[in-house]
Amino acid sequence: MELTRIHPDHARIQVADAAAVLRQEAEPRADRPHLALNFAATLDGRITIGGRSGPIGNEVDRELFHELRAQVDAVMVGAGTAGTERYGRIVRDPDRSERRRAAGLEPDPLAVIVSARLSLGPDLPLLQDESSRVVIITASDQALEGVRAQVEYLRPSDAPATPEDLTGRAAMLPMAPFARALRERYGIGRVMCEGGSVLAGALLREGLVDELFLSVAPKLAAGTGPTVVTSPPLEPPEDAELVTAHEAGGHLFLRYRIGA
């Protein structure tokens, strides 16, 4: 599949090549992974239609989504999104798995689920996939029963927060200690966070987001569904720099550098 690049220049480019720049250009930090957000939204900013993200994108959007997954060491998602979207194995296409092996990567990225209260059903397809490796970030002391995936837990005792992590935080899990643990314990260099919007807001407030991949669909959904970020106001607002823009079928595919 091809995209038309419209910024910073004009060119036709394969979707796989457009996604590959993530691994080529994103440099992990010494103390945490490089973290990108990936969302699809309507023109009026909604990230779901009828409670799901699927109706928003087109075929090219879905291809880019999977190619971006193939570039990272870990895919992060909140428990609500994982349950609603019925997450399964992260990289399902054998050709993508082989390309990852050829690049020296694991066949599948590590799946990272954020669930403060461990509000996950063990019947989630991802948790029933024997080939999947899953880390669950949680404050719960419980463990899920009946899962077939390789599941580990990261709890606050495994990733102690510093006073800086807790400054101005609401009553929720600080994410900075877990980002450090992913880098130090699991060697994760690049993470793609696929939502939801509350998790995206938490990561932004802690200064953990390096870039945003935003697909904009030529649709108006209205209603009161979630937007890309659900959070108290960011003060000051976070600046972003447009790095690339592509188009296909009237859909825009934008890549922004955060904190520019």
Task: Describe this entry's structure for a reader.
With 260 residues, the chain is an alpha/beta fold. The protein has helices spanning 15-25, 59-69, 79-84, 94-102, 163-166, 176-186, 197-205; strands spanning 2-7, 11-14, 34-41, 74-78, 110-114, 133-137, 150-154, 190-193, 211-216, 240-248, 251-258. It has an eleven-stranded mixed beta sheet with strand order 2-1-10-11-9-3-8-4-5-6-7. A hairpin with a 3-residue loop joins strand 1 (2-7) and strand 2.
Secondary-structure map with pairings?
Layout: E1 2-7, E2 11-14, H1 15-25, E3 34-41, H2 59-69, E4 74-78, H3 79-84, H4 94-102, E5 110-114, E6 133-137, E7 150-154, H5 163-166, H6 176-186, E8 190-193, H7 197-205, E9 211-216, E10 240-248, E11 251-258
Parallel strand pairs: 3-8, 3-9, 4-5, 4-8, 5-6, 6-7
Antiparallel strand pairs: 1-2, 1-10, 9-11, 10-11
